[in-house]
């Protein structure tokens, strides 16, 4: 456990006003988007806007991820070349179908990290296809970079040829399978979005159901959904225990003049310490 994933909010990368407003969003993960919310003709300008936003990383309280374009889009090399820089915590990869796609992306990431002298960034694959559902355990257990997977409902419905409904039986198997595979791989699962912004009662019910399936949090599309989501996915005993351990070990490490250290065999640094402290503040 090295990250809270109660809420992951997508922020259109082609909207400078939204990128600025995201500094005040209290989601666990703020994800600048280069994919669905950005028209094809605005991809280049969106990359530049996100690149500039990452220079102001210290002004954002959340973890900062970037959702790049899908493996089949052909745009990933250009996306990563612009957004992999100091200030980014990780990337969300949409429409991941198999580990072969992840291997290609990791190769690009490793090359960029080496040339820019950056530490390895995290990867959150989004499962949005029938093939992805079949391979979700292998995707979840791909490597140390992957610490969560996302369930993407709408593209999956399209892939299955099923019309959207709040309780669509066509998607139940997939929604149930994702958190099981994530748990088996030792990582977190993030549930799909709730589309009806006005139905907070429905969102609450959906969050509670997602938590009962084993999800650690939920993707959100508007800041107004965050309080409801956070209320549902309150830190559990394991997360609280991890946070206490991180705070203790990191403080002891800094007293010795060190920065990064390890907890349970995993590297932690100031970012993890802040996350752990924030979690304990939530519990209090």
Notes on the protein architecture:
The chain is α/β, with parallel strands linked by helices. The protein folds into two domains: 228 residues, Phosphoenolpyruvate-binding domains (TIM Barrel, Alpha-Beta Barrel), CATH 3.20.20; 50 residues, no CATH class. 46% of the residues lie in helices and 15% in strands. The chain contains twelve helices and ten strands. The longest helix is centred in the last third of the chain and has 19 residues. The protein is globular. The mean pLDDT is 92.
CATH topology term of the largest domain: TIM Barrel
Strand order of the largest sheet: 1-2-3-4-5-6-7-8
Helix content: 40-55%
Structural class computed from helices and strand pairing? alpha/beta
Give the overall silhouette: globular
Q: Over all CA atoms, what is the radius of gyration?
A: 18 Å
Q: What top-tier CATH class of the largest domain fits best? A: Alpha Beta
Query: How much of the residues is beta strand, in percent?
Result: 15-25%
The helix count comes to 12
**Total DSSP E strands:** 10
Query: What's the story with the biggest beta sheet?
Result: 8 strands, parallel, barrel
Q: What is the average per-residue confidence, as pLDDT, rounded to a whole number?
A: 92
């Amino acid at each position: 456990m090295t990250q809270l994933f109660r809420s992951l909010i997508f922020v259109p990368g082609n909207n400078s006003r939204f990128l600025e407003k995201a500094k005040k969003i209290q989601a666990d993960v703020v994800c600048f988007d280069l994919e669905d919310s950005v028209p094809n003709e605005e991809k280049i300008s969106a990359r530049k806007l996100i690149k500039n936003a990452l220079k102001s990383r210290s002004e954002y309280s959340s973890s900062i991820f970037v959702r790049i374009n899908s493996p089949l889009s052909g745009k990933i090399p250009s996306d990563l070349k612009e957004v992999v820089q100091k200030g980014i915590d990780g990337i969300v990869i949409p429409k991941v179908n198999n580990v072969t796609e992840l291997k290609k992306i990791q190769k690009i990431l490793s090359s960029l990290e080496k040339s820019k002298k950056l530490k390895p960034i995290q990867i959150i694959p989004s499962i949005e296809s029938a093939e992805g559902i079949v391979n979700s355990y292998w995707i979840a257990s791909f490597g140390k970079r992957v610490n969560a997977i996302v369930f993407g409902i709408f593209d999956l419905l399209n892939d299955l040829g099923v019309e959207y409904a709040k309780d669509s039986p066509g998607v139940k198997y997939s929604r149930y399978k994702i958190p099981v595979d994530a748990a088996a791989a030792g990582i977190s699962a993030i549930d799909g979005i709730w589309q009806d912004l006005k139905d907070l009662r429905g969102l609450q019910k959906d969050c509670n159901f997602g938590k009962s399936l084993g999800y650690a949090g939920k993707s959100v599309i508007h800041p107004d959904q965050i309080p409801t989501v956070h209320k549902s996915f309150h830190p559990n005993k394991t997360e609280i225990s991890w946070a206490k351990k991180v705070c203790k070990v990191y403080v002891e490490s800094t007293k010795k003049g060190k920065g990064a250290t390890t907890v349970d065999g995993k590297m932690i640094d100031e970012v993890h310490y802040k996350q752990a402290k924030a979690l304990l503040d939530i519990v209090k």
